[in-house]
Amino acid sequence: MNKELKEAEEKLISVHQMLSKYVQGDETKSFKYWHIMGMLDDVIAEVNREGKKDE
């Protein structure tokens, strides 16, 4: 995996951790959180596909 992808992955993990702390116990925030995480999952999958093409 190239350096940019690795850095992006680390940033996404830290965003995920911050968001999960933010939404604990709040259903409205939790819904938004899962919507955001779903979009991030789509982005991560797309990046992984692009990364595999480059190998």
Tell me what you see in this structure.
The chain is mainly alpha-helical and 55 residues long. The chain has a domain at 23-55. The chain is built from two helices and no strands. Helix 1 packs antiparallel against helix 2. The N and C termini lie close together (9 Å). The mean pLDDT is 80.
Range of strand content: under 5%
Query: Could you tell me the number of beta strands?
Result: 0
Basic shape: elongated
- Cα radius of gyration in angstroms: 13 Å
Instruction: Give the CA-CA distance, first to last residue.
Output: 9 Å
The ordered string of helix (H) and strand (E) elements is HH
Could you state the oligomeric state of the chains shown?
Answer: single chain
Low-confidence stretches: none
What structural class should be given to the helix and strand makeup? Answer: mainly alpha
Separate helix tally: 2
Instruction: Average the pLDDT over all residues and give the rounded result.
Output: 80
Please outline the major beta sheet.
none
The portion of residues assigned to helices is over 70%
SSE layout:
Elements: H1 3-23, H2 27-54
Condensed summary:
With 55 residues, this protein is mostly helical.
Descriptors:
55 residues
